[in-house]
Amino acid sequence: SFFVCMPQGWIRKINGKEVEFDFSKIEKIPYFDILFFSDEEIKNSHLSLKKLKKMSNVLVITKGKQGASVYMNEKTLHIDSLNVKSVNTIGAGDIFSTVFGLELFLSNNLISAGELANEIAARSIQHIGLSSINSNVFSKTLRKK
Q1: How far apart are CA 32 and CA 55, in angstroms?
Q2: Which end of the chain, N or C, is less surrounded by CB atoms within 10 Å?
Q3: Nearest residue to 89 via CA among 24, 15, 25, 38
Q4: pTM here?
Q5: pLDDT tens digits, the chain, 145 residues: what are they?
Q6: CA-to-CA distance for 94 and 12, rounded, in angstroms?
Q7: d(CA 43, CA 37)
C-alpha cells in the first residue's frame, strides 16, 4: 500500500471570500508515504521544513510557475516548471499530486515522478474545466515515456 496525503481540505477554510489556513491540528494526522503542500500553504503554516519532512517519507511542495521541490531523506530535488500559456490553473495541483503519487508508486523514481507530474499538470493548465484532463493531455506526454 501507499499512503498519500493532500491535506488542503483539512487546512483550508473559507471565511467569507477569504481563504484561511488552519494548521492547528496538522500534527494529529498520521504518517504518510507522500505528503503534498503548496508553497502558499507552507508560508501560512508557520511550521518548519524540518518538522514537515518528519511527517512523511516524501514531502512535495508545489510552487506554481517556480516548479516544485521534493524532499526525501536528505535529498532535495527541484523540478523546474514548463513554460506554457496558462488558461486556468484550478486543479493543476491535484493533477500534479495524483500523477506524481502514481508514477512514484509504479517506478520508485522521484525524478520520473516529478517530470511526468509536472508535464501533465502543465498541459492541463492550457485548458479550461474538464477539458484539462482530456486524453490528448495525457497521451502526448505518456507517448514520450
Answers
A1: 6
A2: N
A3: 38
A4: 0.83
A5: 788 888 887 888 888 888 888 888 877 888 889 999 998 888 888 788 888 898 899 999 999 889 999 999 889 999 998 888 888 777 888 889 999 999 999 999 999 999 999 988 888 888 776 655 656 655 555 555 5
A6: 15
A7: 10
